[in-house]
């Protein structure tokens, strides 16, 4: 079935863990071989809050994808998000010997000098240094400076950093679930690969992934990333509000939201109502759908306003006028696109789901899979290979070393060891 190698990705989301096994077809498209979706436990707003639950959820999602693909997953590209993510645009400069061609060492040095300009506290790590563009002798907009002649080369870089502890906790959960973490990728960076068209990122676009715990943002301009961030408000807060205000269970609120929720509050008449069971009294109560829509609208307004504030602080709000793409499970309520457009300068807004998928596209058509597919596309671009190798992961290695000591070495030397 799979002639060449295959790749795997794990989107460690707040509501679900999604594992994807894929193969890059000769056409360059991704064929989806396996998808494993499992509710995520032990994660909140992108960070692990319960290690044991997180490991179990990852294991179950991975096994489901392995079963569907009939392939073992040795390593995977894993997503990272959360309010601990910070991004900045920085510039690095090198002098090129006058009249000389720019070499790959010059380019590397310019990128390195940009990173050196980022003062990073010891508890943070850089996860991406994404090239926005280069400037030669002050002229910006150069995409490929190699071989060009100049006396000065500037690299404009988008640097993304994350809290080292949060990164490690996600990686440890995945490794303990038996999968080597090949790379950790910022989720909106991955998602953009799956949902944005090339001309959209050339023209300028704001990508909003409204998930369960976080709304991830990425701004693209002139074909490159210009800003990224995460807001800790998304679909789960909408469900939480419905549960609290209607006094019903979270599970019932989630079902009511998906089945009857809309963001069109003023289009409902009072006869349009839903029966719900109140917590405590267990009484059936009639709730107008207009009230549910009011609750949804209030949170969505907050999500869009926080997005505007985030973009304004980064000096990126102008990009909104070129267009907005919404994705993620939380972007699916009817009326969400219209509301986003109303609040953000009447800009064109569309719903984005994964593109560039060949066989198995129907399995990942919902916007909840956009990040997982994006991570797989990232892995494919970097020529990753998910098959288990003979080289064990760090945790496997430690386990093997321990068992070798216990079974082979300890018995032979036990009479030399002190007794405890
Ligand atoms: N059909 C739907 N209509 C409305 N909301 C939906 C629908 N399907 C899913 N959601 C909501 O989308 C959210 C989950 O989206 P998604 O799967 O993209 O999040 P996640 O990746 O698990 O979380 P995060 O990205 O924040 O870590 C939940 O709040 C859920 O209620
Ligand atoms: Mg997500």
Protein model, in words:
The structure is a single chain. The protein has 420 residues and is α+β, with helices and mostly antiparallel strands. Among the domains are: 86-161, 2-Layer Sandwich (Dna Ligase, domain 1), CATH 3.30.1490; 198-347, Nucleotidyltransferase, domain 5, CATH 3.30.420. 35% of the residues lie in helices and 28% in strands. The chain has eleven helices and 18 strands. The chain has helices spanning 51-69, 104-116, 164-176, 187-195, 198-203, 235-246, 250-260, 289-313, 336-343, 370-381, 394-413, and strands at 7-12, 16-24, 30-39, 43-44, 47-48, 75-80, 86-95, 124-136, 139-142, 152-163, 180-186, 205-210, 215-221, 224-231, 273-277, 284-288, 324-327, 349-351. The strands form five sheets. It has a five-stranded mixed beta sheet, sandwiched between helices. The protein has a five-stranded mixed beta sheet with strand order 14-13-12-17-18, sandwiched between helices. The radius of gyration is 24 Å and the shape is globular. The structure holds adenosine-5'-triphosphate and magnesium ion.
Q: Gap between N and C termini, in Å?
A: 55 Å
Tally the beta strands. 18
Shape-level CATH architecture of the domain at 198-347: 2-Layer Sandwich
Beta-strand content bin: 25-35%
The CATH superfamily of the domain at 198-347 is known as ATPase, nucleotide binding domain
Q: Which whole number gives the mean pLDDT?
A: 90
Give the ligands present.
Answer: adenosine-5'-triphosphate, magnesium ion
Mass-distribution shape: globular
Strand arrangement in the largest pleated sheet: 3-2-1-6-11
Question: Tell me, what is the CATH class of the domain at 198-347?
Answer: Alpha Beta
Biggest sheet features: 5 strands, mixed
| CATH structural fold name of the domain at 198-347 | Nucleotidyltransferase, domain 5
Order of helices and strands: EEEEEHEEHEEEHEHHEEEHHEEHEHEHH
Global Rg: 24 Å
Number of helices: 11
Task: List the uncertain runs.
Answer: 411-420
Helix and strand content put the structural class at: alpha+beta
| Helix content estimate | 25-40%
């Amino acid at each position: 079935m799979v002639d060449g190698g295959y790749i795997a990705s794990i989107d460690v989301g707040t509501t679900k863990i999604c594992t994807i096994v894929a193969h890059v077809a000769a056409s360059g498209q991704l064929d989806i071989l396996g998808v494993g979706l499992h509710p995520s436990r032990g994660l909140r707003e992108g960070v692990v809050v319960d290690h044991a639950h997180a490991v179990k959820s990852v294991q179950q999602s991975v096994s489901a994808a392995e079963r569907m693909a009939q392939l073992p997953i040795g390593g995977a590209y894993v997503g990272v998000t959360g309010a601990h993510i910070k991004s900045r645009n920085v510039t690095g400069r090198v002098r090129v010997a006058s009249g000389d061609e720019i070499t790959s060492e010059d380019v590397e040095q310019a990128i390195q000098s940009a990173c050196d300009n980022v003062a990073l506290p010891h508890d943070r790590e850089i996860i991406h240094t994404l090239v926005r563009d280069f400037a030669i002798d002050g002229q910006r907009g150069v995409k490929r400076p190699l071989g060009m002649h100049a006396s000065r080369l500037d690299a404009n870089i988008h640097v993304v950093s994350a809290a080292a502890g949060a990164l490690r906790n996600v990686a440890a959960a995945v490794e303990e679930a038996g999968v080597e973490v090949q790379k950790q990728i910022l989720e909106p960076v991955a998602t953009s690969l799956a949902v944005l068209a090339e001309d959209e990122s050339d023209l300028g676009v704001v990508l909003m992934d409204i998930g369960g715990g976080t709304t991830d943002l990425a701004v693209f301009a002139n074909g490159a990333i210009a800003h990224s961030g995460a807001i800790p408000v998304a679909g789960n807060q909408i469900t939480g509000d419905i549960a609290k205000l209607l006094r019903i269970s979270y599970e019932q609120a989630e079902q009511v939201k998906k089945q009857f929720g809309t963001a069109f509050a003023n289009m409902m008449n009072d006869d349009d109502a839903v029966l719900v069971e109140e917590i405590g009294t267990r009484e059936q109560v009639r709730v107008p759908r207009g009230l549910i829509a009011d609750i949804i609208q209030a949170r969505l307004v907050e999500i869009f306003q926080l997005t505007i504030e985030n973009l304004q602080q980064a000096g990126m709000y102008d990009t909104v006028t070129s267009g907005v793409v919404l994705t993620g499970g939380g972007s699916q309520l009817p009326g969400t696109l219209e509301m986003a457009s109303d609040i953000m300068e009447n800009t064109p807004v569309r719903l984005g789901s994964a593109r560039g998928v060949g066989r198995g596209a129907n399995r990942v058509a919902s916007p909840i899979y956009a990040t997982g597919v994006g991570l797989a596309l990232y892995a494919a671009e970097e020529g990753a290979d998910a098959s288990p190798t003979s080289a064990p992961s760090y945790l496997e290695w430690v386990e093997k070393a321990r068992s070798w000591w216990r079974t082979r070495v300890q018995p032979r030397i036990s009479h030399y060891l002190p007794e405890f």
